[in-house]
Design brief:
single chain; 390 residues; alpha+beta; four-stranded mixed β-sheet; 11 helices
Amino acid sequence: MRRDLAVDFSDYADRWDSGFHWYVTGQDLLEQVKSVVGGLKGTIPAKNGKTKETAWDLTDHSSWIGAWSELNSNKSLLSEDIYLKVGGRIIKKTHKYKSGSDGSDGFYMSDLIYKGTDPSIGNIWSRKDGASYREYGRFMHDNAPISPLEQVTWSESVAKKLRRVLKGEKDYSSAAQNLVQSALPVLAATMFIAEPARNPREWLIGLMMLDLIGKEYSSGVSPKYYTFDKVMAHPDRIDRTKKGSDAPNKSQSGPSGNRYHWDRGVRIDDAQTLVSVNKVGDLASVEGKYPASPGGSAATSSNIDVANDYIQMKEASIVCRWVARKLNDGIFKELSSWKAAPLKAGASLINRQEMKTVATDPSDKARPGCARDLIAEIKRLITERAGSFD
């Protein structure tokens, strides 16, 4: 994962310091995301959503924001079944309940027609309360072409279809349950209603994730691309030949322990460090590239603490990669000496300096002004991304 966004202008040694790098921390980027999302206003649902006939009709950007904002702010709706109309299908948000060690946190989404219709284990339609991200990953993997490069273009095509569902431009009411189109309405409700209702930052993270699907995230001899299966779940967890006790295909880090514990009825949030994951079964805590919020994780929305929150580490990684791509394709495109790059936390750089500090440095008028302009441009890009599905 990447945790900082670096700006490199090392060819400008004659102007500033040789090999100079500026950087913005993932912490600051997520603070910007939180600020932008906190200012969004949507259309409050006109209907109560408590029956299929009064389902919230989600057909445009404002109605989606209004729906997840209502669920986020009106906690009484957690105990209610709420129905949504998405892409021509009726999606049900199941009420909060406990059943032994299992249950719903009040945000589970399911397709009203197809839920529970296929009893095979691990199938996307096997659960009555909706699929897990692992099951979404397997469903996408099973529908994708065999060729890796075709998987990339296929994933881009699916992302476009999902975007059209969000914009109210596609009706998949008659899509057969074995086709990927059948899953897009409930997946849209999961990513863009359930997730931001738990953690509002996920509204923007989901939009950035859609932009990145099909794009390269690691160069080299064998470049790696965001494809829908890897976005939803860890590849080793998708592989049906692997057992939970098997070792992962390659070394993998994941969060240590649980996010919180209870002490006499008081929730205590625990710091999470990165530890080695040695079993495929434990990859459930790692899962895919998309930083989906696991059950009971709504507390991650309250405070930004990237160093101690695994979900936020993944969020920061997505924002770093997205902003770097936007800068390189935008204002840096004509400046061959300038480059933005996502960096691992603590990566060593020559003359590394935080851009926020540079922006307040009175020693040189040009450098602080440039840093402030770049910070403003990053904020503009994030704000613009939050404002539409395009």
